[in-house]
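User: Hi! Is it possible to get a structure for several chains at once, not just one? Here's what I have:
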Amino acid sequence: MAEPGERPPPAAPHGGGRSDGAEEAQEGGAPAGPAEPGPPPAGSPGSEEPAGDARKKIDVLLKAVGDTPIMRTKKWAVERTRTIQGLVEFIKKFLKLMASEQLFIYVNQSFAPSPDQEVGTLYECFGSDGKLVLHYCKTQAWG
Amino acid sequence: MAGEEFFLGEKRFKQCCEDFVKHSQQIGDGWEWRTSKDLGDGYLSKTHFQVRNRHIPPDLKEKNNDNTEQMLFAHVEEPSDDSQAAGACSTEEVVRYEYHVLYSSSYQVPVLYFRACFLDGRPLTLDEIWGSVHASYQARLQEGPWDTITQQEHPILGQPFFVLHPCRTTEFISAVLGGSQQHHRNTNYITLWLSTVGPVVGLNLPLSYARLAPEQSTAVADRALS
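Assistant: Yes, the chains can be modeled jointly so their relative placement is included. Here is the combined structure:
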């Protein structure tokens, strides 16, 4: 996903509304991108990984809770360094929400990582079966 | 289950706080439970220090110290775009934050109270507090600062504290917990709530709190909730 000022989106994005660099993973479960080994499952022994691995994307499965609109595409390949805040902004853009509408993301449907948390770390802690499941909720949180 | 609301009883509030404090002690996160001997009520409390950068526009450097301090207050809530101005310098400032979690029997939810002061004891003003709300919440804040954070008397200590308004707490908690009874039981309400609202006011919970509930693999959760 590209934020203002970042590198341009990949060529030929699918459909409208997703021209900001996120890659759509195939619904069948195979990770998008070139055929290289996927990220190791969470809990595997900490083997030596080449520095290039830091740039590998992780598979994220987004699930709506509450009265939140459901994204047509739920599976995304996301850069490990993408923050929760970046992911929130991406989902809000995708769902065409206003800046002042609020969206929160949860792991284990029970804990909201802070906005500066990186999804790569979340994947290492909470990922399983090669993906990170995140629940998102459009709701007000105060008032 | 649309419309199903999940309220927090006081007994469960205390239990969740107890579990929360236990985990905090395990990881050295600094939360403690305090009781007021007069009222018999209790609340969670944590104090921590944050370093904030203050950006001083260049034309203020020539003024005397008193005026500079006045102008610092006026500028602290602006975004840090002016760091690009030629000659701008920034100073770091340490702010002491004290967070309290109290139970509201009228709303049947926990409520986050906090106060903040500089090391010389000067408390932050409401404007400064609004200015230090995390960037990702500023748009919402600016739509309604007065129903976000205001100053109120602490129900137990009787001193002025800032409070994050709790009127929508039940709404978002109910949305996230959904209709699964098992999920209600297995989730620590305080962890769910504080991880959501804490970052708004500079309070971030370490990820290990996410494992506070009885172990539940994501695969099991998927099947249970699909």
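The first helix of chain A runs from residue 84 to 94. Confidence is low (pLDDT under 50) at residues 2-21, 26-38 of chain A.

User: Great, thank you!
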